[in-house]
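Supplementary notes for students who missed Thursday's class. We covered one full example, reproduced here. Read the sequence, then the structure, then the short commentary at the end.
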Amino acid sequence: MVEFLKEDDVQYAYEFIKTVCTEIGPGCPCSSQERKRAMKAREEMEKHADSVQVEDFTCAPAGYLGWFKIGAACAVAAILFFYASLNSPDAILHSSIAFGLAAFILLMLVFEFILPFQFIDFLLPKKTSCNVAGKIGPRSGGQPKRIIIFSGHHDSALQFTWLQYLKKGYYIAEALLMFGVLILNVLLLIRLVALIASVPLDWINQLLIVISYTLLPVIVVLAVFFTGTGKNGGKVPGASDNLAAVAITLAIGKIVKRHPELVPADTEIRLVSFGCEEAGERGSTAYVKRHLAELRAADTSVLNFESICRPTMIVFTSDRNGTLKHDKGFIKVIGDAAKASGAPCLVRPFYFGGGGTDALPFSARGIKATSLFSMKVPDQMVEFYHQSHDNYDKIPVEALSNAIKVALAFLQELD
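Structure (token representation):
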């Protein structure tokens, strides 16, 4: 394996992260600060790529996590309709509305968060974000027969309040929220069926009354304050999630420009920095939709980088909370590249509850993709993930170096 990586390349990546954190700061989805972070990525990308494009797209950034607040309002309304149904001639109607509201919360949980299908986005305000994409090659000219995409995302997350302040208590908060959604649906459904069947179930009424005074206030507070605000780009610098990935992508471009022999003939390298990943992979979804025909026309592979903040690399075999499988052959290729690079590496499924990565929309449309990840869960997650502590000092240069080495080994193993 030829060594193309220099110490200066790793330092270049680290300095990019530090510069964005100190000079621009946090940049949550669709904020003006996110745009500034994207323009900084473009500025650096133009030094390495043959051409660079900024591609605007619109989305509803509040959909992916904003459903928590909508769900809290629906839960309160459901309980109010439950109370309205007590001793009412329209008990079945009121109970039907109560259950319908609870079911809507469950649908948002499943189809907006667990399976991010933009379930409620059409109801919410649209804003503009952008992807930044650079192209290198092909050296032979003409249309590429193969496209290799290296990617990350430049937006940062909204602060996760309960991770910031409760640390491991975040898991209890999340469990309470999920339990609250499920128990509300189960009890209201049983009560509705009992009313329709004229079966008295006083214990259900008593239990719902108790829940309305105990569990409901807790889950409403947890849901309403689940994330911080996006004012001034939010509070999360997003060094590990995910400026490190953008920096790695830029460093790969820098090395490829210095060593064009790394890229086989008829192969095009794309360096892509996505927007709005923290809004549910909206940027990468828009990119795939816009470029799907050309991506399918060539032999396309995507190595996405996500949360690179420790030396041990992880190749994900799945995405979307573990529900979407990546191409097995491509997983083996990246796993073999990691071994050849000498970087410590694990291969495992995606974590349930972790949402997804920007590899998701590619694999969902049959394009070979995976994400290289290195955060230690739960230790580093509890320490700084989606918190104001996610700053450049959390990024060891060895982590950046190992991720770049895996990418370069992958390129060297191409036919």
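Commentary. Residues 7-61+126-159+234-412 form a domain with the Aminopeptidase fold (CATH 3.40.630.10). The chain has a mean pLDDT of 96. If anything here is unclear, bring it to office hours.
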